[in-house]
Amino acid sequence: MEIRMAGIDSSRAPVGVRERFAMTASAASEAAARACREFGAKGCVLLSTCNRTELWLSGRASLEPYELLCALRGAEPGAHRDCFVRREGLEAAEHLFQLACGMKSQVFGEDQILTQVGTALSLAREAGAADAVLETLFRSAVTSAKKVKTAVRLTEADQSVAVRMEAFLKGVMGPLAGTPCLVIGNGEMGRLAARRLVEAGCRVSMTVRRYRHGEVSLPDGVEAVSYEERLSLLPRVRLVVSATASPHYTLRAAEVGPALSGPKVFCDLAVPRDIDPAIASLPGARVYDTDGICGVADARRDEAALMRAREILADGLAEFARWYGFRAVVPAARETGELVARDFMGRVEKTVRGLGLSGEAEEELLGRLRASAEKTVDRLLFGLRETLPSELWQPCMDALHLAAGGRAEPAGPGDFAPRPAAGGAENAPRFPLFVDLTNSKIALVGGGRVAARRAKALAPFGCSLTVIAPDISPEIEALGARIVRRAFRAGDCAGFDLVLAATDDRETNHAVGEEARRLGVPANVCDAPGECGFFFPAVVRRDALVVGVTASGTNHALAKAAADSLRARMEEWIPKEVTADAAT
């Protein structure tokens, strides 16, 4: 499996080191996008919580996960390497499954990590960094963790961080009833902490930012105060809890010193830390971070429940492994499905065209038939994953592919892409192979100026031309080609002998070329020589003489100039009677 991760957590490093790699949601999203954009990862997910930071990669990025995380955070790789653990393949996947249901948490069995894993995937998805592998891995882990939470209880008591905080504070401060408290931060962790303190009998105030609009969500029994009032409130409280996502301190020693009056407990639930550690040196101040608060012995575990949870996770992990293994035969399955659908469409197209439907209705019916055929075949082929042992997937798919009329070796990625010459030059000249296009089915995607030139050049050669575009130029319509007046759709290349992509949209041209490549149909892509299976030449024709001119598909001006020069000098070089005689 091309899955790798590097992670740091509370068991390997103190909060002072962990906060160096912690990220806000927006920072994690941008970092995941950069990992793909700048470092070549196929997919990247960043998980950052108060207790851990993990970077997940799929594909082969230019850097290892730890080095990549350091590059993203501007950290020196040599400084903290021993604080990180690296996992890959099935070991990494198993770790994520256990992590999602709280088995790797500082507070064993806690529920909040499940939401955090799901949020990490959502952030990567929004950044365009969640590829199919990490998308499926994280969704599978979340699904399995939810099954565990539904079926078993891993500990005998509620072990959320907020509950652990309450128990810790009772041990430090004694009974909490009547204690005046200030909670800084109105996020999820802040609200959980405030709710537990209210239930313990505390008098709780919670900060709210002034710039927030709309209704603010506060737990029942909590008083809202402005964030800017936090320092002025310090003399009136005995306990301060801070739990924000800010990268900066919410309380600094220089600001807090003048406001201290009597003993106070500062409880920091944030990573990076919210509360300046220097406050601990002020008279009467005691400061505790997540390591001190959650580093108490775990609640007693229910071993029978733990065994059942591991069985559920093992089933989910096995299902993911089967999905991942089946990916190797997906290209053959896709191509086989397209071959079968193509054969089916070849059998029904003539019947459909004889029904006398309007052009739009005819195309809609053909499109639905094609889609239905592909879905039916896909259901049969992908059902093999559930009904056959994995060692039979490839032999069975190869046999079906051959039976559908495919090649002895199913096409893999790039099989129909142009290959460089032996010397390695990608712009090597192409051999001018002249072919008979009589009755050949050719799809021309595009209806503008470039498409018109292609259509006019093909017109004398007896092909059956279908033009697909929402807007068709009058020049093309005058040629009598079959017109499909709509945008290109998946499946449009099926059933054709040649495909030409000639729109003014790069994304559409690329999609046309990719589909043709998968189907094994030679394609010309007007704006990307590297995606062409053949080059479309400038054509010079007189009687039986046909001359094709290309400049390796990269210099259209040179090819046009050469063709224009040939036309201008044709009479001088070759008398007309010579070409006329050759035509008779």
Named CATH topology of the largest domain: Beta Polymerase, domain 2
* Secondary-structure-derived class: alpha/beta
Query: In CATH's first tier, which class of the largest domain applies?
Result: Alpha Beta
- Strand line-up of the largest beta sheet: 7-6-5-8-9-10
Record field, number of beta strands: 17
Low-confidence stretches: 296-300, 410-426
What's the CATH architecture of the largest domain?
A: 2-Layer Sandwich
Could you state the CATH homologous superfamily of the largest domain? Answer: Glutamyl-tRNA reductase, N-terminal domain
Whole-number total of structural domains: 5
Written description of the protein model:
The protein has 584 residues and is of the alpha/beta class. The chain folds into 5 domains: 3-151, Glutamyl-tRNA reductase, N-terminal domain (Beta Polymerase, domain 2, 2-Layer Sandwich), CATH 3.30.460.30; 161-294, Rossmann fold (3-Layer(aba) Sandwich), CATH 3.40.50; 328-403, no CATH class; 413-531, 3-Layer(aba) Sandwich (Rossmann fold); 537-584. Helix content is 43%, strand content 14%. It has 21 helices and 17 strands. It has helices spanning 15-18, 25-39, 65-73, 89-100, 112-126, 132-151, 161-173, 188-199, 230-233, 253-256, 290-294, 303-326, 330-353, 359-382, 384-387, 393-403, 449-458, 474-477, 506-519, 556-573, 576-583, and strands spanning 3-9, 43-48, 52-58, 85-88, 180-184, 203-208, 222-226, 239-242, 264-268, 285-288, 441-445, 464-468, 482-484, 498-501, 523-525, 538-542, 545-549. It has a 6-stranded parallel sheet with strand order 7-6-5-8-9-10. A 5-stranded parallel sheet has the order 13-12-11-14-15, sandwiched between helices. Helix 2 packs across helix 5, helix 4 crosses helix 12 and helix 13 packs antiparallel against helix 14. The radius of gyration is 33 Å and the shape is elongated. The two termini are 65 Å apart. Residues 296-300 and 410-426 have low confidence and may be disordered.
